[in-house]
Design goal:
By secondary structure, the chain is of the alpha+beta class. 45% of the residues lie in helices and 14% in strands. The protein has 15 helices and 11 strands. The protein has helices at 2-14, 57-62, 72-85, 100-105, 117-123, 128-136, 150-165, 188-203, 219-232, 245-250, 266-272, 285-296, 317-337, 348-356, 358-365, and strands spanning 26-30, 34-38, 52-56, 110-114, 140-143, 173-176, 180-185, 238-242, 277-279, 302-305, 309-314. The strands form 2 sheets. Strands 3-2-1-4-7-6-5 form a 7-stranded mixed β-sheet, sandwiched between helices. Strands 8-11-10-9 form a 4-stranded mixed β-sheet. A hairpin with a 3-residue loop joins strand 6 (173-176) and strand 7. The longest helix is centred in the last third of the chain and has 21 residues, at 317-337.
Length: 368
């Protein structure tokens, strides 16, 4: 059964942190009539049959002939309503991935969308489009950053049409700026082969690889930070300390910290916030936390202290751990991006969109 194969494929990629962390990424399988696509708020590593949503491809295709509001919030509500209407009656209240429209565009049985740090070293770099062209030629397309959801699917549709009009085959690799990659194929083996070749090609261009071996933060220091967090920030908060050579190097000064000052991808925003707090040392920690709250009107979910390490901050074990994992991912992306002209943050308007987007708030609400 193809759904069973999709579940297996999803679990394999979802359990590999080189491809997916926390609730990131999504997968699908389709025939000519319907598609099973990951449900919003589910995680690939543990997804089972009930985590997928069966949708009618003909109903999804009708979306392209409709007109939607020019107001972004209203438009996304209207499109979401049509996405929900594309579900088969058997699916109940399950909510299909926000990228369902994009999956439906791709004329292959399997689609596996992931957010590998290695790949995002390119998509979050200044020379990303150039790197994709040099590495993969006409077998891939590059899609400039745009709002996720309907607008992103429309942008991908337009880029594919340009690619096909130029006489090229349908691209099986779609690289999204500051986001990740979509890989399509008609078998699980084809998906695996494309990803393997992709990773090998990128690794040949990497000049500096991340150093991921953990360096322990002294227990007394971690306790000092935790007490400062509890004294300054609102709420009953959990604090988790961690460090590695790259974190310590990137925290050496404000200038060195520049690649981590803002988010690189939507997942980073969702799980550890649009920016971390930074303190020059333990003696200025409480002032730095207070300044962050005053400037941003919210608690930081990630704190970096010069020469000490990083601290994930949240209200539960699960959310704190996800903040830690996604910040470690961001550090890796920043290091990989050095090989492709240096880092490039998401534009501020995109950061604001993700921070206020109902879809991502819904996804986080299911992961607590």
């Amino acid at each position: 059964m193809s759904l069973e194969k999709l579940i297996s494929l999803s679990n394999v990629y979802g359990a590999d942190p080189e491809y997916v962390i926390a609730g990131g990424g999504n997968t699908s399988w389709k025939n000519d009539v319907y598609m099973f696509v990951k449900g919003s708020g589910t995680e690939l590593a543990s997804i089972k049959e009930e985590g997928f949503v069966k949708v009618d491809l003909a109903k999804l295709d009708q979306i392209w002939s409709k007109s939607y509001s020019s107001d972004s919030d209203r438009r996304e509500e209207e499109v979401l309503a049509d996405l929900m209407a594309s579900r088969y009656p058997s699916e109940g209240s399950k909510r299909p991935s926000v990228e369902t429209l994009l999956h439906a565009l791709l004329p292959f049985n399997y689609v596996v969308h992931t957010h590998p740090a290695l790949v995002n070293g390119i998509t979050c770099s200044r020379k990303g489009a150039e790197a994709v062209k040099n590495l993969f030629g006409d077998s891939a397309i590059w899609v400039p950053i745009t709002n996720p959801g309907y607008i992103l699917a429309k942008e991908v549709k337009d880029e594919i049409e340009k690619h096909r009009t130029a006489g090229h085959d349908f691209p099986q690799m779609i690289f999204l700026q500051n986001h990740g990659v979509f890989v399509s194929g008609n078998t699980e083996q084809e998906i695996d082969s494309i990803y393997t070749d992709m990773f090998q090609a990128i690794k040949k261009e990497i000049k500096t690889f991340p150093v991921t071996e953990e360096i322990p933060v002294a227990e007394r220091t971690a306790e000092t930070v935790s007490l400062s967090v509890q004294a300054v920030l609102d709420g009953d908060l959990m604090v988790k300390s961690f460090a590695n050579r790259d974190i310590l190097s990137l925290s050496e000064s404000r200038e060195a910290f520049a690649p981590l000052e803002l988010a690189m991808t939507p997942d980073h925003i969702v799980y550890y916030g649009f920016k971390p707090a930074y303190a020059e040392g333990l003696e200025t920690l409480e002032d730095a936390l207070s300044a962050f709250v005053e400037e941003n009107g919210m608690n930081p979910r990630l704190l970096v202290v010069k020469g000490v390490g990083a601290f994930a901050i949240n209200s539960s074990e699960s959310l704190t751990e996800k903040a830690r994992m996604l910040f470690l991912d961001d550090v890796k992306v920043a290091v990989y991006a050095e090989s492709f002209g240096g880092y490039q943050f998401m534009p501020q308007d995109q950061i604001d969109f993700i921070r206020n987007w109902e879809v991502e708030k819904y996804r986080v609400s299911l992961s607590k």
